[in-house]
Amino acid sequence: MKLPFVFVLLLLLALPAPSDAQTNLASTNAVRSFPTRGLVREKPADGKTLVVRHEEIPGYMPKMTMELTVKNTSELKTISEGDLITFNLVVNADDHYIDQIRRIGVSKETNAPVAAPAQSHLSELGPGDAMPDVELLDENGKQTRLSDFRGNAVAFTFIFSRCPLPDYCPRMNKHFLSAREILLQNKSGATNWQFLSISFDAEFDKPAVLKGYGNLYRSGNNDRWLFAAIAPEVLAEIGPRLDFRFSREAGGFSHNLRTVVLDSKGRIFKQFDNNLWSAEDLAKAITTAAEVR
Amino acid sequence: MSAERPQKDVTIFIGAVTVLSVLIFAGIFLILRHSHSHPHASSLADEPEIKRELQPFVLTERSGAEVSRESVSNKFLVVNFIHTGCSISCEQVNKRMAEVQRLVANDQDVLLLSLTIDPRSDTPPALVKFADRFGADANRWLFLTGDKQPVFDLIESSFLRRDTNVVYQQFSGGFVGVDKIALVDKTGRVRRYFNGLQSGAPKSIVDSINEIRSQSSL
């Protein structure tokens, strides 16, 4: 009886009373507060922020490294890089801060060697490399694999349907449309080719969404141009190898452009790494890649 | 008997509070003492490679010209980190850089330098388009790219930490603090970092340059 009681008391005392902040702020609209633990990766010279690798914040954020604004800068006095801390993350619709920063120890990791930078870089795929097979969920709700198109030259690129920048996803779509026109109109040309527009926003780009989105660009003809989505865990494996990168930002994504042409044997034939290429360039690459037997 | 029981609990409570208070204060004392006796030990151990000094490099400018550490020596360098696919935060930081360019228009000893964190995308032609968006002066604001390895080596050796525990869904490729603007003095030392998202950053940067100038002329 006594022992558990002491433990409960210990817990109550040990917790830095985040409940106060929670109740004070709960009265303000849509302000939320999360008691969190993390490792101080950096203490920027401005004295107003901390770069913290924090634990998962259930219901709000996975574990990640973030630069956080410190409310009471005096709390930073005793904090150094490498410290393990507890703190309270307070967020509303357009702002955040942390307070109640407590140092609880020093990370054991600090003496660990810094890992070799970007393993993904070492294993980046280039022309001639076999493209690993990748499973997608297509606009018809069907599981589709890259290998399903073996025997065809394949051009794929990464998009998301909510993409607002005209020179990004929409430009990729327009290039695909024009390149397809060039290929379709060449009556004596190859017919073993396929275009694939792959959404990396699988959560939002469900099959029906993608079909509607694709139809906006395909001008009533779905011939050899499929829209599909890639699951986050699949993308996490293949994305780095193609140097395709993105991050969530302000309700959308910031991303780079990677358009890949595979030959009919499923090897990488050509990679277009930004948006400074033309539909003609793509059509030409497809034509050559389709001839590989 | 029933009246005695709560009293006993209260005694235990007070006892426990006293014992725990002592333990907690002792703990706080130990933690504070530790942090005072080794104020920077952990940060040094954590960043053995970061010398905060501009390391030698040879990279390609958007014009196609080679740029090395020597070709930018004896200048103040205002450095930021870009990718031409940026839409929100890096756009903001570049606007601050444009503001710095305006403020130092007459200070020939200041150069602006933008390093790409997406070298495969950011070829010289891509950088030319991007630089034009921000009115970058070809002689005062340089945009550097090259093979990924030398570009990333320069950023990591001289400016930013790379997180070992990188989550794939971060455009920065693991670099921490890509929204910062770094100030390098004429001797090649990285003197300060500024939050490139803050509107006051350009003025703070120019103030810092002037301060360093006045110190070195003493």
Task: Describe what you observe in this structure.
Chain A has 293 residues and is an alpha+beta fold. Chain A has 2 domains: 79 residues, Copper binding periplasmic protein CusF (OB fold (Dihydrolipoamide Acetyltransferase, E2P), Beta Barrel); 169 residues, Glutaredoxin. Chain A contains 7 helices and 14 strands. In chain A, helix 4 packs across helix 7. The longest helix of chain A has 17 residues. Chain A is elongated and about 75 Å long. The N terminus of chain A is likely disordered. Chain B has 2 domains: 42 residues; 159 residues, Glutaredoxin. In chain B, helix 3 packs across helix 6. Chain B is elongated and about 85 Å long. The chains are: A alpha+beta (293), B alpha/beta (218). Chains A and B meet through helix 1, strand 2, strand 3, strand 5 and helix 6 of A and helix 1, helix 2, helix 4, helix 5 and strand 7 of B.
Secondary structure layout plus pairing:
The complex is a heterodimer of chains A (293) and B (218).
Chain A: H1 2-14, H2 18-26, E1 32-42, E2 49-54, E3 64-69, E4 83-91, E5 96-106, H3 119-122, E6 135-138, E7 143-145, E8 153-159, H4 169-185, E9 193-199, H5 207-217, E10 225-229, H6 232-238, E11 246-249, E12 252-255, E13 259-262, E14 268-272, H7 279-291
Parallel strand pairs in A: 8-9, 9-10
Antiparallel strand pairs in A: 1-2, 1-4, 2-3, 4-5, 6-7, 6-10, 8-13, 11-12, 13-14
Chain B: H1 4-37, H2 41-46, E1 58-61, E2 66-68, E3 76-82, H3 89-103, E4 110-116, H4 124-133, E5 141-145, H5 148-158, E6 180-184, E7 190-195, H6 201-216
Parallel strand pairs in B: 3-4, 4-5
Antiparallel strand pairs in B: 1-2, 1-5, 3-6, 6-7
Helix pairs in contact in B: 3-6
